[in-house]
What we know:
By secondary structure, the chain is of the alpha+beta class. The chain contains 2 helices and 4 strands; from the N terminus they run ββααββ.
Amino acid sequence: MQRPTLTDIKEGNIILDLVLRGTEELTHSDVRDLYGGGSDTSQVLSLLKTAKEQGLQVLEINSSYDAQGLVLFQSWELSQRQVQP
């Protein structure tokens, strides 16, 4: 995980939507939200270019009660937890 940004997530929130976006789908606003960049477009564009060069992706989390989050990452793996009897 390269950079997580989570806001207003609390115990009891219900995750309504998870969206995985690949490298080519990264946007200017994703980078601005992740890095907290203001109106400095050149810095945001530079960070966006670097993220794309590194093959980074975004996980967007939309939850109940206006909780939301973005996670910038390179790869992921889904695994099933083994329950011990």
